[in-house]
Amino acid sequence: MPSQHGAKLWVTQETKRLARMSAEIVKDAIPQKSTPVAPPLADSPIVSDIIIPDALQKGTTMTKISEGGKQKSVLFQLDPDEGRIVYKSSKGGIVPIETIKELRIGVNTRYYRQQFKLPEELEDRWITIIYILDGTYRTLHIVADTRDVLQFWSTALHKLYTIRQGLMTGLGNVEMRQSVWERQYWKGADEEGDQVLDFDDIERLCKRLNVNITTADLTKLFKEIDTQKRGYLEFEQFQTFAKILRRRPELEGIYGKLSSANGGKFDLAGFIKFMKEYQKSSLDDVELSSIFHKYAGNPSTASPNEPVDVMSLEGFSAFLISPENAAFSEQNRPIWQDMTQPISDYYISSSHNTYLVGHQLVGVSTIEGYIRALLHSCRSVELDIYDGDHEPMIYHGKTLTSKVSLRDVCQAIAKYSFVTSPYPVLISAEVHCGVAQQDKIVDIMIEVFGDSIVQAPVEGRPKIEALPSPEDLKNKFLLKAKNLYVVEQLAAAQAARLAQKTAAQKAAALEAVRSSSESSDNEAEILLKEGITDIKNTWKKIRGSDSGSGEKPHKAKMSFRLASLLVYTVGVKCHGIDSQVEYAPEHIFSLSENSANRLLKASIQDLVKHNHTHLVRIYPKGTRVNSTNYQPHRYWAAGCQVVAINWQTFDLGYTINQAMFQRNGRAGLVLKPEALRCPEKNLLSNRTQHFFDVTIISAQQVPRLRDSKGQEIIEKSVVDPFVEISLHIPDWSHSPFLPESATAAGAKYSPSTDATTTSVSSARTVSFRTKVIKNNGFNPVWEEELCLPFDCVGDMRDLIFVEFAVRQEGKDDDDDQPLGLYCVPLKCLEQGFRHLPLHDAQLTQHLFSTLFVKINIRDIN
Question: Residues in domain PI-PLC Y-box (predicted)?
Fold first, then answer.
């Protein structure tokens, strides 16, 4: 009989050491814990040597809570090998571990228990799982029969979750990744559960993996591995099969060329030369020597006490996919930027209509939008606050969206704001309440946020000369709302200036008419009447009586207590950004994307200048009810800091926003380029042209799409993949750099666009696509060189975004999801040979899918 293989994951001694360090992670599973569980960061230790109790694998009967508080007894199973929770359901009943975004235990589930109006005694046995499936956030609520059962499930889920999340923060952990791959596909192929794979099992597995191999070749390989002629493979033989299947001829070719160029061996000198010439490494020889010796020889068998002077093919392959060779230079770095500059010098990760999940007109208002955004380091959330029966409520006004209480939202913000970033959270509020409930807003925020919310008396407040820094505002909340008193003062001042300017212009015109001997008395009379009419209209607007009714000016209805919470972020109306309008440093105005587009075209230099010392918020056009997003780098290029995104929509705008704020340790704030912070250097006058040269070499295990139930879509044939590379470039010059040679070679150019009712504002795009590889999604090889031209202003390459998308032939329409994608700021993309981890449309990283490329940037001038 074949040997039995349990759920144990075999790992290296080093990973076991990391496991001991992660003991505290396991302790976090206890139901009584009240702190939120954040997704682990890249440097989190990976738990190993996991043994899942048989009871959880065979299944535990627990109570499933559905919408409305309905309760049903359901058998839940935990499959550690395939990495998923399985239960019977008409809607699928599968939750892949890698799709889980958050686990909540015990008191952290209180919001839903209260929403369902269920008794408090259930709370300490309650698990809520937040996950993404079919492009939608979903929740699974489970109540265990006893606290012991909850403890078993909680501990096991946290361990498996930590493993999968650890593998989904870039590449590396090669042996762990290989072990998980082997267990997952062994288990998936063993449909009979007899712990062996016959030829039919192997053939089905190859189809699932998109392997391009004939039946004859597969039969030959199977027989070579089945040396005992038993007609099946045991696990150890399957490992041999997997190793053959995953062989990388393209890597062997690169390694052979490097060795041949260095006298037939790849030693330290050859490695240093490779790193400096190909990889454009800035590390010194000592640092490179340390990396070389880490991967020299066979890294899985070499003893650390035995120095090896040659790097083997296996060591070279392990290095190329390691964190030391990551494509995204800032992916795993801690917060490293200077955080002591005025906050106007930073881009701020921002959300729009944070309370909504789904549609702008009929979507659900919930605390979930705040939790997911804050756990991803969002630093600006939005509240639309209206009068409630007893306390203020949040919802999208004049729509059919549901409501959520301000108190619930503030409690969620308080709990989750500083889990992943210590830097300030801007609460952008549209206040539609009467004065009485404005006071209640203040009561709730002071009660929930305590000393963390910035406040100052309205009267006697010191004049603010400059905005504070993120470092000054650590762990603070800033309320941003319109101060109606300030709004009226600015409006009156602007109207007075306008009237004065208009009167002066008309007076000058009349004087010119009177002094001209060529003008008739009739012409002078006409001009005089026009001038008087314009002056009257201007003053009517100032008094608020444009209709001629003689109404008194509008008086602001605003709580002085609410005004006391508006300190560094005082909302005002935009009255233009020319030198005639004076805004205090704390004044912040919001622009719709259409208004921002007009401003960019009319006076982008004035907007850049304004943003040196002031915050500006941009928000998506409201008539796009499906919550699609503009491309935020169009506004970042003008220095706008608070560029708000609909976080419930996974589109290109969301992807670019996430790529930007993967930087700087996921602090949620990124220092603006020097060209937008230091006007005295005049860097914006520096315009350059370049070529982005990329060789698409190969892909590894192109993922299959999943259906709405979470199952892989296995078609009759394997995929026919191609790769599309796009550069998304701000429209910062009148004409793009697009030489005829590029368009003749197949480069496609798309100009920037403004928003319409259905489409979004976009920046320029230059794209290129490879040829199609037929019938191979497992290890397709292109070896295709592409060349994309781009222009840049002020060396702001961090505002150009590179998107790699692996697509299926025949399904390349804009609405179709790619099979896998990767997006990164151009400045952060390392040159040379790199493996790019592929993600799904929701930016969940595929565990085993990569794109292997060679990157180079050429400067034209």
Answer: 562-677
Q: What is the pLDDT of residues 691-729, one digit of tens each?
A: 999 999 999 999 887 777 667 777 766 789 999 999 999
Quote the CA–CA distance of 767 and 773 in Å, as a whole number. 19
> CB under 8 Å to 136, separation ≥6 — which residues?
none
The more confidently predicted of residues 648 and 418 is: 418
Q: Tens digit of pLDDT for each residue in 305-315?
A: 555 689 999 99
Q: DSSP code of 463?
A: P
Using a 10 angstrom Cβ sphere, with 0-12 exposed, 13-18 middle and 19 or more buried, the burial of residue 704 is: buried
User: Amino acid identity, residue 847?
Assistant: L
Taking residue 538's Cβ as centre, other Cβ atoms within 10 Å add up to 17
Place of tokens 């539609």: 432
Phi, psi of 283 (to 5 degrees): -70, 150
Cα 656 to Cα 843: distance, rounded to the nearest angstrom? 11
- Picking from 58, 121, 129, 72, the residue whose alpha carbon sits closest to that of residue 99 is 129
Rounded to whole angstroms, the Cα distance separating 656 from 643 reads 12
3-state secondary structure of 241: helix
pLDDT band at 90 (very low <50, low <70, confident <90, very high): confident
What length does the chain have?
Answer: 861
Find the DSSP H helices in 299-403: 313-320, 368-375
Q: Is 22 exposed, middle or buried (0-12, 13-18, 19+ CB in 10 A)?
A: buried
96: helix, coil or strand?
Answer: strand
Give me the pLDDT at residue 53, please.
85
Residue-level pLDDT at 771: 96
Q: Among all chains, which residue has been given the structure tokens 């209260």?
A: 114
Tokens of 619: 């928000």
Sheet order of strands, 781-793 included = 748-750, 764-769, 721-729, 801-808, 820-825, 832-839, 845-859, 687-700, 781-793
Q: Where are the domains of the chain?
A: 13-170, 181-245, 257-325, 343-483+560-675, 485-543, 686-859
What CATH code would you report for 13-170?
2.30.29.30
Q: What is the pLDDT of residues 391-419, one digit of tens each?
A: 999 987 655 567 899 999 999 999 999 99
What confidence score (pLDDT) does residue 513 get? 55
CA dihedral sign, ordered 540, 543, 544, 547: negative
CATH match for 257-325 among 1.10.238.10, 2.120.10.10, 1.10.10.10, 1.10.287.1700: 1.10.238.10
Which architecture characterizes domain 343-483+560-675 according to CATH? Answer: Alpha-Beta Barrel (3.20)
Query: At 624, which amino acid appears?
Result: R
Q: Classify burial at 771, counting beta carbons within 10 Å of its beta carbon; exposed 0-12, middle 13-18, buried 19 or more.
A: exposed
Assign domain 686-859 to its CATH superfamily. Answer: C2 domain (2.60.40.150)
Domains 181-245 and 257-325 share a fold: yes
Sequence-separated (6 or more) residues with CB below 8 Å from residue 504: none
Cα 37 to its chain centre, rounded Å, is 19
Q: What is the pLDDT of residues 438-450, one digit of tens each?
A: 999 999 999 999 9
- Whether the pLDDT of residue 26 is over 50: the answer is no
Mind listing the pLDDT tens digit for each residue in 772-799? Answer: 999 899 999 999 999 999 999 999 999 9
pLDDT of residue 535: 39
**Reported CATH class of domain 181-245:** mainly alpha
Residue 88 clears pLDDT 80, i.e. is over it = yes
Place of tokens 């880490």: 294
Question: What is the helix (H) or strand (E) element at residue 350, kind and residue range?
Answer: strand 350-351
CA–CA separation, 350 vs 726, rounded Å? Answer: 24
Give me 521's structure tokens: 């008395």
CA distance 761 to 731: 11
**Are 102 and 130 contacting, i.e. CB atoms less than 8 angstroms apart?**
yes
Q: How many CB atoms lie within 10 A of CB 108?
A: 22
Look at strands 425-431 and 477-482 and give their pairing. Answer: parallel
Cβ-contact 507, 381 below 8 angstroms: no
Confirm if 98 and 160 have CB atoms less than 8 A apart. Answer: no
